[in-house]
Amino acid sequence: AERGAGSVRATATHCPYCSLQCGMAVTAGDRPATLVPLDFPTNRGGLCSKGWSSVELLDHPERLLRPLVRATPGDRTSPLVESTWDDALGRVIEAIGRTQRTYGRDAVGCFGGGSLTNEQAYQFGKFARVALRTSAIDYNGRFCMSSAAGAANRAFGLDRGMPFPLSDIAGADVVVLVGSNPADTMPPAMQWFDAGRERGAQHVVVDPRRTATARHAELHLQPLPGTDLALANGLLHLAIAEGLVDEAYVAERTTGFDDVRAGVAAYWPDRVERLTGVPVEQQRRTLLTLARAEKAIILTARGAEQHRSGTDTAQAWINLALALGLPGRPGSGWGTVTGQGNGQGGREHGQKADQLPGYRSLADPAARAHVAAVWGVDPDDLPMPGRSAFELLDALGTEGGVRTLLVLASNVAVSAPDARRVISRLRDLDFLVVSDFFLSETAELADVVLPSAMWAEEAGTMTNLEGRVIRRRRALDPPAGVPDDLQLLATLAERLGAGALFSGDPETVFGELGRASSGGTADYAGISYARIDDEDGVFWPCPSPEHPGTPRLFTERFATPDGRARFLRVEHVEAHEPPDGEYPYVLTTGRVLAQYQSGTQTRRSRSLSLIAPTPRAELHPDLARRLGIAQDDVVELATRRGRARFHAQVTDAIRPDVVFAPFHWGGGSSANALTDPALDPTSKMPAFKVCAVAVTRVGGP
Ligand code: SF4
């Protein structure tokens, strides 16, 4: 893990950003740090501009190095001023005690993130349930992966983003990408697609924008946002009509197909064309390309999943994959492209409102007993499931809602839907504590801000988009006195009288996490730091030290009680907020290459800011002409929730009835000030990808 090259010593670790978790070596010990890419199995020496720039931020002048508190306690109009750790933590502990004495335990809440290490995510869930004994905990992955996770759990009995190694993409004859744009979000992953293309593989991209990924595809379908479910049902209708269903696979490995067969009968190609805008000819070509391939992979991502019907949309594509006999066939399958760095591990270890480590249900008595035994507490003392992320945020400061909130690794003032409403709720809190590296938009609202160690200064494990558990290794000491979030939780637990149950040592916590996960679907019991070092990561489930890990799932059976995958009939529903006379266009939101998530880090990078300095709203030349908008003009987007301004990017790469806005910025350019918080009933995913919008020109460049 630590390599010497002459006098330069470097520590092997991984990029702090997306779920590809590219391998890199960071110069050990010295500041400013430098990095070189590593030949890790996911990136094979590649890095994107975000990864290359990541070391810039370690010594950024805006880095938080000391706790901040309000000059006048309780008055959030007074300035944030530097304080001591003792004072800051004293205020936090006092607020927790006061709130719980006055309003009960659930009035103190926790909000986590998909960038926390596995150990931190595990410890945060345990901290909420054991040290605070509150049911109020959820995390920002609810806004990211929850729909795909819900569908995978329903269909396969287990959710692992990609149930096969990333390298399978290179061997597939056909890959269909639905609402996924890896060429911009994780460019080094494109080498696997390119390797497939060199062998003659066909790639189909389903996206309302002709993205960098779509431009390389053999076929690009441009459906209206929010109609991917209808498209998948239409393709399955065609598969049945053409006799292309793998009947033997369906009979041996699945249940529920007859109901789905009856359901998709109504998805005639011409009806699907009317619903989606995808011509019948393109539907047929896609289906025939997919069904005739020996090895085929269908990948969905946020474009398909961040809808009020996101879980059902992912299920529709799973139904198609099952009908064609793909899941579990080596080199084939359905998967989802995870977003955040530890989006996978972040949802496995208990920081979700309804889950315990090992992906166990918090409502299941056997799961409660198992985890309580590992934690050394009475299972009856564990709270029951609480509110999901947006529901938790929307109830802040209200009767029965959270009054004191602890936020780790999350910037909800930018990343939550209807963000200005969330900011208003944050202001309604009695007390807000935020741990972060920088003064994020959420931290600006806090009573106490706690500085946190950054990725290259902390140790732990992450689980990448393939389910491979990898090590984040410490290359540098953090600035004096700055803890990582694992140490912070141990310190807070000690001050709450539960210190004996909380270690600040990552390897100790990982061992405990393994025991807590043992027997669950995400079983880490056989994984150790030493094995990760020796094997370039270990794929879960890995129930014992002798077990080789599981790169490819479902080859023999699915994780359901009867071992069969479940078809489920799902129906297209109109978007919660379709365009109308007042708001005549569809707004969809997404990412750009040189920014990451809420931008707390990447907006502070000098090199990335040169590439993507300002947020740009994309609109089609026909729409721009109609509205009198020219390239670079300032436009105002207005929805029922608010307004935000962007520079116009006039491009024929987008449908004429759709406007795209990136969500990495806050303030007056906050795309999420516009988005619709209508929730998917299963996953509680907000409808980030569709709402009705009006567009006006407000000024020149
Ligand atoms: Fe790799 Fe993602 Fe980091 Fe880019 S952001 S270097 S793709 S891990």
UniProtKB/TrEMBL annotation:
Q: Name one GO molecular function term.
A: metal ion binding
The answer, when asked if Iron-sulfur is one of the entry's keywords, is: yes
- Example of a GO cellular component annotation carried by this entry: membrane
Keyword field: 4Fe-4S, Iron, Iron-sulfur, Metal-binding
KW Ribosomal protein (keyword) present = no
Domain 4Fe-4S Mo/W bis-MGD-type positions: 8-60
* GO BP annotations, alphabetical order: respiratory electron transport chain
Please state what the protein is called. Assimilatory nitrate reductase catalytic subunit
